[in-house]
Design goal:
eight-stranded antiparallel beta sheet, 165 residues
C-alpha cells in the first residue's frame, strides 16, 4: 500500500523563493517520467476538479511545455514552461509564465524560475523544487492565488498516478 507523504512547503519572502520537498513511494525513473512526459503530467498536474491539457511539449533545453488549465466550468488559463537546463534523471530548470493560447505572456503576472531535483532514496524518490520570483509582490500574488494548496493537491494526485503505473 502506498504511504501518503507530507509536503514540506517553505515560503521565504525575504529571498523571494518557495522551496518544496516531497518524497514518493516510486522509483526515480517513474517519478522523472511523470514530471517530464506531458501525457503523464496532464494526469496529475492540476488540483481536482481542474485538469491540465497539453497543447505542445518538447522536453529539451530550449523546448517548452505549453498547456491549458481547464476548470470544471470550462474556464481555461494558459501557461508555458520553458526548459533552460536538463540533467537527465537528476534535475531540470525552467522559466514558467502565464500566457495565452498563442504563448503571449500575461503582463499581469511575473514569470518565475523552477529548479526541480530528483533524488533516489531506497524505494522512494525525493523531489526538491525551488521556485524563484523577481519580486516579493510577485511571490505574494502566487501565494494569495492558492499556489501552496494547489500544488499540494497536485502532488497528491501524483501519488495516485505513481501507484497505478
Amino acid at each position: 500500500m502506498t504511504t501518503i507523504l507530507q509536503v514540506n512547503f517553505v515560503k521565504d519572502l525575504k529571498n523571494k523563493k518557495i522551496i518544496v520537498h516531497r518524497s514518493f513511494d516510486a522509483p526515480l525513473d517513474l517519478v522523472w517520467r511523470a514530471w517530464t512526459e506531458s501525457n503523464l503530467r496532464d494526469k496529475w498536474w492540476m488540483p481536482k476538479p481542474w485538469m491540465a491539457k497539453t497543447k505542445t511539449h518538447k522536453f529539451e533545453v530550449g523546448g517548452k511545455w505549453h498547456y491549458a488549465s481547464i476548470g470544471p466550468d470550462g474556464t481555461t488559463m494558459w501557461s508555458i514552461e520553458e526548459y533552460t537546463a536538463i540533467d537527465n534523471l537528476n534535475s531540470y530548470e525552467s522559466i514558467c509564465s502565464f500566457c495565452d493560447e498563442e504563448e503571449k505572456r500575461n503582463p499581469n503576472f511575473a514569470s518565475n524560475t523552477w529548479k526541480v531535483v530528483f533524488i533516489a532514496d531506497g524505494e522512494r524518490t525525493r523531489v526538491e523544487v525551488e521556485l524563484n520570483y523577481p519580486t516579493e509582490e510577485a511571490m505574494r500574488k502566487m501565494i494569495e492565488m492558492g499556489f501552496e494548496g494547489g500544488l499540494t493537491m497536485a502532488l497528491g494526485n501524483l501519488d495516485k498516478l505513481l501507484a497505478s503505473e
